[in-house]
Write a structure and sequence with these properties.
Length: about 260
């Protein structure tokens, strides 16, 4: 993989030229910033910025004004290759709060679409429907905690299912009738990258190949739908697994959160 070329392609397709990720979302390009206003339930964020030292503080202030007037919480997705070099420090100084950094990792979809063997008694529920979304929320709440966060995620995914079902794919690993792991794939038309999200497994079932199975299943779907690459914002717990599977780290992204 030509890492620099793929990173430039990622920036172009999923940051600078990205389409809205929901029916009610709007993407604006203004003042060296690309932002999405997701509405009341959707995700609002600054997706990309091309700033210099002279204009960075004013651009940050404008985003605070824009989202603050609308009562929107938003996320500024900062990447370690963004400029100016001190952009993260400027975001902190403006009152945005940094969350845990994640590593942007990419792999060729076809290389990940491999057969896997699940533990005895475990099967994959692959229907993307309301039941599947609620099972996904239950699995991730048990894996990560944060029940309130997972409830909001379920609401957002149900809205996406109603408005743009072709952009969402859900898979849940079940031990009998019990959801033990779950993940989703989100796609946008006209891009090369399918986004993999979730993948949390309840503690008793970790280390048994379930995460790998969820990646392989979604990789096969990505290949079938014409997406060349898989993209993951990996936590530190996921990064070593993805590296072993052949994913390449391209940048580090830090979500900076703002609450009006």
């Amino acid at each position: 993989m030509d890492e620099q070329r793929v990173l430039e392609q990622y920036d172009r397709e999923l940051r600078r030229e990205v389409a809205p990720d929901g029916v009610g979302a709007v993407v604006d390009r203004t003042g060296g910033v690309v932002r999405q206003d997701g509405g009341e339930l959707g995700w609002s964020a600054v997706l990309w910025s091309g700033l210099d030292e002279a204009g960075a503080d004013a651009a940050i202030a404008e985003q605070l004004r824009y989202f603050g007037e609308r009562g929107r919480a938003f996320e500024w997705k900062h990447y370690s290759h963004d400029r100016p070099a001190d952009l993260a420090d400027r975001l902190r100084a403006a009152g945005l709060v940094a969350e845990e950094p994640e590593t942007l990792m990419v792999a060729e979809s076809a290389a990940q679409a491999v057969p896997v063997v699940l533990p005895e008694g475990v099967w994959l529920r692959t229907e993307t429907d309301e039941t599947g979304i609620r099972l996904l929320g239950e699995a991730q709440a048990r894996a990560f905690g944060e029940s309130d966060v997972r409830r909001r995620l379920v609401d957002q995914l149900l809205e996406r299912l109603a408005e743009a079902p072709q952009t969402l794919s859900v898979v849940v690993a079940m031990a009998g009738d019990e959801p033990i792991s779950g993940a989703r794939m989100e796609t946008l038309p006209g891009v090369s990258f399918a986004g993999l999200w979730g993948g949390g497994t309840v503690p008793a079932w970790r280390g048994r190949g379930i995460y790998r199975a969820l990646v392989a299943h979604r990789a096969a779907q990505a290949v079938a739908r014409g997406y060349r690459y898989l993209q993951v914002d990996a936590r530190e717990t996921s990064r070593p697994i993805l590296e072993r599977l052949g994913f390449t780290a391209l940048s580090v992204t830090t979500p900076f959160q703002y609450e009006p």
